[in-house]
Amino acid sequence: xxxxxxxxxxxxxxxxxxVDIKDATKSDYEYLxxxxxxxxxxxxxxxxxxxxxxxxxxxxxxxxxxxxIIRHMRPTLSExxxxxxxxxxxxxxxxxxIYRINKKTACTYEMDDTPPFxxxxxxxxxALKIAHLLRMNIVGELHITRKQYLDGSIPTGFQRTTILxxxxxxxxxxKKIKLIQFSCEEDSCREVSDFEHKRVxxxxxxxMPLIETVTYPEMLTPWEAEEACQNIRFIARxxxxxxxxxxxxxxxxxxxxTGGTRVEIKGVAHIKWIPKLTHNEGFRQKSLLLIKNELNIxxxxxxxxxxxxxxxxxxxxxxxxxxxxxxxDKQATNFLNIESSKENYxxxxxxxxxxxxxKIIAINLPNLKGILSxxxxxxxxxxxxxxxxxxxxxxVEKPNMIHNEFVPFDTASNYKExxxxxxxxxxxxxxxxxxxxSKIDWIELQRILSASxxxxxxxxxxxxxxxxxxxxxxxxxxxxxxxCVPNETRKSRPDGTNIFERVLPGPDRMYPDTDSKPVSLxxxxxxxxxxxLPETLSYKYEQLKKWNVPExxxxxxxxxxxxxxxxxxxxxxxxxxxxxxxxxxxFIKNLFGKDIVGTSKSDNKQFIFKMTYDLCKYMKDEExxxxxxxxxxxxxxxxxxxxxxxxxxxxxxxRYSKDELFEKADNLMNEYDTLxxxxxxxxxKQRWVMGKIKNFALGNINLxxxxxxxxxxxx
Length: 715
Ligand SMILES: [Zn+2]
Description:
It is a single chain. This protein is α+β, with helices and mostly antiparallel strands and 715 residues long. The protein folds into 4 domains: 193 residues, Gyrase A, domain 2; 222 residues, no CATH class; 114 residues, no CATH class; 57 residues. The chain is globular. The structure holds zinc ion. The site of zinc ion has 7 residues, from loops.
C-alpha cells in the first residue's frame, strides 16, 4: 500500500529545489543565499588545566568517580529583566543534572568553591603562537570574562574565557576568509548520558584549555566551509601544540540563508561532515520559509490560530484502534500487534502503569493539512521538528508521537540509499509507527476531535506530569512556523541531517570576571612566542605544488603536517619528493583507513610516521630500491618484530644484480615463446614477463629499468 503523504513529501521537496550535495553547484547556494561561519575549538596540549592545577588530558571511565553532585536549573531574571531562553527551556525540562567527579582530575575550583588560580602561562604562550599564524592582532591586555553557559555542561553556569587576538585571516584556495577573534577558554564537561529527566556529566575534561577561532560568515558554499575549517585545524596542528584525536577538536557551524536565521550546529566532531550538514541545513531553512509562506496564505490572521486537544478515553482508544501498550519504562512504549476484542483490549490496558502514569492525547491542528508531511531534510518532515522538541523539552523518549501524515520512508526503492545514509535509530523504529499508523482509524479520530477535512492530527503519549510541557512545546513550535525559522542550536547526526538541541540563548552574556585581574601581555612575551614559528600553511601548499605531488594527497599530508618529514626524508636519503609524498598521502592513508593496529589513535599514527622514516633510512643504507617500502611497511605494521632484516626475509626478498635480472628476463622471454597459448602481440609478451619478474626485481632495481630493457629487446 502506498502512503499518500509520500507524494506531498516529494512535492514539497521539489518546491525547495532540494538537490543531493553531489549534484549541487554554486548556483544552488546562490539561490538559497547560503552563508556559513565557524567557531573552531581545539584543546591545547598542556599539562595542567587553565585556571587550576589539575592535570589536563586525563580521562576516567564513566563509573570511576569519587563523588556525584546533583544540580537543578532555576531561571532568574537577567539584568535586563528577561529570562534567558536556554535557562527557561532547561528549567522546563525539569532535568536533574548530575556531575561525576574524580578527585584526580577535579578540585574545588571546578565546583566554584575556590577562586581561580592565575591563568596558565604555558597555555597562553602556546595559544599566542597559533594566534600569530592566524595573523591575529594581539591584544595588549587580557581581560578574563565569564561567558554564561546555562545548558548544564558547566557546573558553575559560566565559562572563563579571554580574547587573545582580533581580526585575523586565513587563505583558502580561491579566497581570503576574515577571522573575528581568537580566544583561550575552558573546556566543558563530557556528557555521559541523557535519558528522560536525568543527564550525567563527567568533570575530567572541564577546565582544560581550549582555543577558539571564530570566522566571519564568509563561506558561501559547504565546500568553502569545509576548506576553511581544515585550514584552521592544519594551522593549529602544524605547531604541535594542540591535542589531536577524538574529542580534541570540535566545531560549531553557523548556517543561514536569505530570509532565514543564524542556526548553530553545535559540536560537529568531524570536518568531513561539514559539507552535507550545512547543505541540509540550508535547505531545511528554505523549506521552513516555504511553510511560513504557505501558512500566511492560509491564515489572514495567524495570531488567532490555536490547536485543540483531548485526552483519549479507553473507549475512544478502542474505537480508533490504537493499540499501544507499555511494557517497561525503559522502552517508553511498545506496540502490540493484537487484533483484540474489546475485553482483551481493556485487559491489556488495565495494566495500572498505563492507566495511572501515562495518558494518550490527541491534538487537532486546524487547517494544517500538508504541513506535517512537508519536506525539511532527507527522510525528515516538519513533524520531526515537533517530535524532536518533545524529546528534548518534554523529555519523552522517541517514538513519542504519531500523526495522520506519517511518511514511512521505507520503500524498497530507497533501501540502498537508506543504508548508505546510515539512518538507524529513527527509521529502525519506524516499522512500529508504520504498523500503528496503518491500523489507526483516522476518520474516527477526526470525528472524535470534531476535525474538518483540512485539519491535521497528532497523537502523543507521555507521563501525566509531562503532558502540559509537551502540549506547550507542540503549540509553540507550530506557532513559530507562522513567523520564522526558529533561533535554535542543533545537533549533527551521522547521516548529515541535524536535530533540535536547544533554543538559542540570547546574545552571549559576558561579564567581567571579578576574581581575575587583567593580565598585560608584554612585548617581550609576545616576541618570545614568535620564535620558531612553523612555516605558514600557504607556504606548505606551494611546497607541495612545487614538488609536483598529486592533489589528492594534500589533505592527508597537511592534516598530519608531514611536509617537514617528507623534506627530511628526501634530503637525507635522496628519494624523490613525489614518491615519498605518494607513500604518505595514498599508501599510508589507506593503511590508516583500514585501521590496522589502531591507527585511529594519534600515538600510533606518530609511531608509523617515525617507522616510515626509519625504514627509509634502512633502505638507503642497504641500497634497496624505494618501491619495496610498501611491502615492508605493510609487514612492519602488522608485526611485533621490528628487525628490518627479518622483515625483508619474511617478504621473500633476495638480492639480484641488474645483470642477473636481465638474464632472468631473457630466459622468461624464451619461455614465453614455448607457451602453447602465446599471443603474437608483443605488449602481451612484455606484460607476461613483467608479471613474472616483478617479485624478483622489487627492491633491487626500479621496475621501469626492466620495462625499458624488455622494450629494447623486443625491437
Ligand atoms: Zn581543578
